[in-house]
Amino acid sequence: MSSIFDDVRGEFSKTNNAVIKLILTNVIVFVAIIILYIVFTIAQYPHYYQWVMDQLSLPASFGAFLYKPWTLLTNFFVHQGPFHVFFNMLSLYWFGQVLEEYLGSRRLIAIFLLGGLAGGVLFLTMYNLVPYFQPELANTSLIGASGAVFAVILGAATLLPEHTFFVFLIGPVRLKYIAALCIIITMAQLVGPNAGGNLAHLAGAMVGFGFIKSLQNGYDWGKPIYTIGEFFQKIFTSKPRIQVPQRARATTSTTARHFSQKSENASVIIPNQDEIDAILDKISKSGYESLTREEKQKLYKASQQ
């Protein structure tokens, strides 16, 4: 058991593995909820378990939400039932790896969080303003990472629509078709028993699409998330101050500026059309996974032009 804890702690100490950290966070919360359910059920205090769930799930009523605003964030880290968490985390693993490989960990986290928050906002808005949903207002709440995961799916499909996944019993399927099927299923269930969850799916999908399109036009929706993350990182991380002699500091500064200028000049090289065509041909023949890191970066630079 201690080795499992060591492995988990090791994963959280690593950098550039946001997919694993998000999955572990959701799984840890899920396991904790199962333990609470078992303990309170055996102790014959099921109302305590329900109280815990009420503090984590997002209520449909805006009045109830005002008394626990934190649920706008906590709801998409909470799952009930093994299949609920399994399929969400499996989708996050598949599609999240594509985004993390191409855009980095912090942008993946930003898309996930913004998708989950947007899902909660649309859920609250529709249930409080649209008459169709209001009969269920008092008895409905939202949990699950589906909205956040849909943001990741649509983000990956918008970034790399021709990227293929191998689907069991079907074969290779392009990301754009997987995303289209997800949207169709969501739209078909907007008036079903899980209408609230599907509203969150739709909001997450819009965030994933908009995030990538905005990024390709030069604006990053994730900036507020990065700022908040850096703020908390400064609070919980302390770096020892290293005394550097004045002469050495000046030399280091000059060298660093020279290196930075060279790096910036190198980073703005845009691949030509022949290079892009060759990369696209390689994707169509061998799949996105066959690309080198340099080829992935070239493709991303081309998509921003």
Automatic annotation (TrEMBL):
The chain crosses the membrane at residues 20-40, 76-96, 108-130, 142-161, 173-192. It is a multi-pass membrane protein. The keyword Transmembrane applies. It comes from the Bacteria. GO terms for molecular function: serine-type endopeptidase activity. Residues 69-211 form the Peptidase S54 rhomboid domain. GO terms for cellular component: membrane. It is found in: Membrane. InterPro entries: DUF6576, Peptidase_S54_rhomboid_dom, Rhomboid-like_sf, Rhomboid_protease_S54. Keywords: Hydrolase, Membrane, Protease, Transmembrane, Transmembrane helix. The keyword Protease applies. GO terms for biological process: proteolysis. Residues 272-304 form the DUF6576 domain. Belongs to the peptidase S54 family. This is Membrane associated rhomboid family serine protease.
